[in-house]
Specification:
The protein contains 7 helices and 11 strands. The chain is 34% helix and 22% strand. Helix 1 packs parallel to helix 2. The strands form 2 sheets. Strands 3, 4, 5, 6, 7, 8, 9, 10 and 11 form a 9-stranded mixed β-sheet that branches. A two-stranded antiparallel sheet has the order 1-2. It has 267 residues and is α/β, with parallel strands linked by helices. The radius of gyration is 20 Å and the shape is globular. The protein has 2 domains: 234 residues, Spore Coat Polysaccharide Biosynthesis Protein SpsA, Chain A; 29 residues. Strand 1 and strand 2 form a beta hairpin.
Length: 267
């Protein structure tokens, strides 16, 4: 494999027709979960999808797994990065597809996203579908994703699974690498707010299996709250910080005590 930019490329970028979708997987020292992701991509890749893998200079068996991927992987880069969003930005820079989709190590592709995207209106900036949210043992927790009614829904929380979103490549900004877990929510909200719901499309299909035992699950509640407060400041909605705190106090000192009281009466 020829060396390039501190890593390697399994095929030369720019050859052949433009893919409809580039699927990007970022991974670091997660060989076993990567195998699961590669198997799912092999089942559903189709002829209109480019597959790009960004490895953060893994020291386990990850690079051997990637080497065994063969022609499934169109572009592969292995070098140190500054975190998950930095790795995703590197992936974006190597992609050629009209749309971009991010499928992290461990998650599974369930649909031919190339065919779905090709059938979508040309003016769409964001395509999105559903995701099976799974426990670490593979059992279903719930299904996430439904048709958006307002961009304001992102102010309540992330209404979509990041892995079930496809972004128009030439209109997609970089991920803000100063965030650890909320840059995708910030980026998606800004795109939807800028271009409007009329340039998004809900794909009424389950696109991925998302395992909830991944990177985001390692973040403490305190750090999650700090990042959400930053999110509100970044989008000019500082008053939501106070609203969230009031809601949390109401739940702790009013809602939960009342719930416990009624539970006691029912015994």
């Amino acid at each position: 494999m020829p060396e390039q930019a501190g890593g390697h490329r399994m095929q030369e970028s720019g050859s052949g027709p433009q893919p409809v979708v580039s699927v990007v997987t970022v991974v670091k020292n997660d060989a076993e979960r990567l195998r699961r992701t590669l198997s799912s991509v092999a089942r559903h890749k189709g002829g209109k999808v480019e597959y790009v893998v960004i490895d953060g200079a893994s020291t386990d068996e990850t690079q051997a797994v990637l080497g065994a991927g063969g022609a499934l992987i169109d572009v592969c880069l292995s070098e140190a990065d500054a975190g998950i969003y930095d790795a995703m930005n590197k992936g974006v820079a190597l992609c050629r597809g009209r749309y971009l989709m991010f499928l992290n190590a461990g998650d599974e592709l369930l649909a031919d996203v190339g065919a779905l995207a090709e059938a979508s209106p040309e003016e769409c900036v964001v395509l999105y579908g559903r995701a099976n949210m799974l426990h670490g043992d593979g059992s279903l927790s719930y299904v996430k994703g439904k048709r958006l009614k307002s961009p304001a829904r992102f102010l309540k929380g992330m209404p979509l699974c990041h892995q079930a979103i496809l972004y128009r490549r030439e209109l997609m900004p970089s991920y803000d690498t100063s965030f650890r877990i909320m840059s995708d929510r910030l980026l998606t909200y800004r795109l939807v707010r800028e271009f409007g719901l009329q340039r998004t499309l809900f794909l009424d299909a389950v696109l991925v299996n998302y395992y909830e035992d991944g990177f985001s699950n390692s973040i403490s509640p305190e750090q999650w709250n700090r990042e959400q407060d930053r999110f509100y400041r970044e989008v000019g909605k500082r008053h939501y910080i106070a609203i969230k705190k009031v809601n949390a106090l109401f739940k702790k000192y009013v809602k939960l005590p009342i719930k416990k009281l009624y539970a006691g009466w029912g015994r």
